[in-house]
Amino acid sequence: QVQLVESGGGLVQAGGSLRLSCAASGRTLSTYAMGWFRQAPGKEREFVAAINWSARSMYYADSVKGRFTISRDNAKNTVYLQMNSLKPEDTAVYYCAAEIRNAYSPPHLRDSDYDYWGQGTQVTVSS
Fold first, then answer.
1. Are 114 and 99 in contact (CB under 8 A)?
2. Is 100 within 8 Å of 51 (Cβ atoms)?
């Protein structure tokens, strides 16, 4: 069983930065793709960013491209999301996800491709 625990969320002014962390336990995820999604009030969950096992391939949603950076530290079994130039529309609960069906797979954009999810961390950006 894999447990994912997000941290680093909070309240920040527009233009500010936050760094989210997602620590995994129960299984080493160094050979699996991981991703970040978010869900704003009244909206469906949406893809934010994803990274493959080696961190050589990353995908981003157009809405965050150039502002957010996904990274991972396989030695710490942790994935990060650095969020810069935050906007009020980035306000949401952010979830990390892990896929363990296929080792060495490319990053995934669909939430149905992921097997485990964290409980989420709230990010609120004030204008």
1. yes
2. no
| CA–CA distance, 43 with 56 (Å, rounded to integer) | 31
Show the low-confidence residues of the chain (pLDDT under 70).
none
Sequence-distant (≥ 6) Cβ neighbours of residue 62 within 8 angstroms: none
CA-to-CA distance for 30 and 16, rounded, in angstroms?
30
| Structure-token pair, residue 110 | 């669909």
Residue 56 CA to residue 16 CA, distance in Å, equals: 27
Closest listed residue to residue 83, CA positions, set 109, 101, 63, 98? 63
Residue 98 near residue 50, CB atoms below 8 Å: no
